[in-house]
Amino acid sequence: MEVDKGKGEAEETRKVAEADRDTVTLKSSDGKLFEVSKEAAARLSTVLAGMIAGGSIDDNGTDLKQIGSEALENVVDYCNKHANSIPSAALISSSISFNTAPFKEPEEWERKFVDRLSHDALFDLVEAANFLGMERLLDVTCHKISEMMKGKSPDQIREVFNIKNDYTKEELEEIRQELAWAFYDD
Amino acid sequence: MPPPALTDDLVDEVLLRFPPEEPELLVRATLVCKRWFRVISDPRFRRRFRELHRAAPMLGFFCADYWGASRFVLVSSTPLPHAIRGDWRAVDVRHGRVLLNTVARWDDFTFGCSDDLLVWNPVTGDHHRLPKLQEHMYPHPYPYCCDWTAAVLCAKAEGGCDHLDCHRGPFLVVFLCTSSREAFASVYSSETAAWSGPASSQLRRAQEISVIRLPQKPYRYKCIALMATVDGGLGFAAMHGSTLDLWSGVPGTKGYVRWAQSQAIDLKTICTLPASLETVCCIDGVAAILRGMDQTRTYVIIDLKSIIKIKKIFVGRESFPVPYMSFYIPGTDLLSLDLSIFGIVIFQLVTSKYVDGFSVENKK
After folding, report:
1. Rounded distance, CA B311 to CA A170, Å?
2. Residue A17 burial by CB count (10 A; 0-12/13-18/19+): exposed, middle or buried?
3. Are A103 and B52 inside 8 Å of each other by CB?
4. How far, in Å, CA of A86 to CA of A110, rounded?
5. How many CB atoms are located within 10 Å of the residue B249 CB?
6. Which residues in A lie closer than 8 A to residue B9 (C-beta atoms)?
7. Domains of chain A by range and CATH?
8. Structure pTM?
9. In chain B, what are the domain boundaries?
10. Cβ B13–A174 below 8 Å, yes or no?
């Protein structure tokens, strides 16, 4: 009993020490460590918020095996530098009975943040944002991808996004004729 | 090395963030592959799309010509599947429904009030003709001496409708008629298919008319456009020089409403404007439509949310714009409707023939 109690106390002390820290350490799939503001992580990511609340954050680096170091660096960069300008997801969604906050166009700094990314890095970041439940980062990255599709024909979209065409030529031609208004001259 | 492919989960997320004001992007995306087609046609996607974007985009506005008949002026690149016909004028628009009335001709004896009213959805083609109002509804013995307006509303508004998908549900039409001395109102319900008895400005019942005076200071506005504010209250927009002023009603003393200016937007700093502008219409905290008073009759459309996006449209000598806002997503629920039109509906039929493993519920 005594031992158990002692262990419980130690656990408690460790948790308190952890709670006192301002940052959490995250570990990418390839073993790199990143520090991120605890407040920002909890505010921007529903998954990290859950881990922090549940005490499952590891001081030596919480394993995020699904996320590579480049994507995690971008996530951390997004959280640390820009957390202050983003309203809490909880604040927005509590106002009305909608499941999600309404989509807002990315701000200037958010555009710049995703514009500098390579195609691969952008796709990895979308996956990371989705995995971590970062609604706003998902908005910004998905919006960037949807902008990349603007002005492109279905052929060009397939090429850029590496998608196989499973329609026949006749199917496409018929639809295209019916819906001429939706297509640019291509 | 080929570029990476998006995982299935993320295709949904990306397509959801397509701009609703450019519906042709979603239409083109359905042609990329059959999986994308299935995602976009899924009713759950349509629901999430509306939830995420909330405010339906302005696809264009109805403008009355010299004789009073309306035509549709495109703001987005999307034509409406159903065209407005000759002798109808758009009176009001809400949640995808358009309230029309027949254009009175000069030889019509019953000029004005007793014209037919019709509620119409230009995306689906549904329409509902309203019974005529009783003659005794008009305060003046000669109907053409009174002035009237009307509005179409969602009937579920009091039960907390989010208006994202209520265009097929029950609706109300509020008819308001004023003469020099009195004001009368009557409400039509699509559920009872009847007009209520008239409520006048002397009556104090559930349906009630109040007079709210406009602010006299700092300017006397010549022309205002009413709107609902972000928090659901009453507001109005008015031009003064090159500044667009937004006002909202706040509780004053003795239960009266007092006006408070909430915003003053200097449009000169954003773009070059016609010499003189008047406010013609305001879409509930979303956009304002202004009209140039010079010869060009340019319409200026201002996005009130971003205050940066401005569109200028040259319409000619037409007036009374009624903006039309609606989501327009290619999909399956249009199938059970009148199929004689060109557009998404035809597209749906054509594609459904070919998409393997995807059964479209074609009830026809």
Report:
1. 38
2. exposed
3. yes
4. 11
5. 16
6. 130
7. 2-150 (3.30.710.10)
8. 0.69
9. 8-50+333-354, 58-211, 214-316
10. no
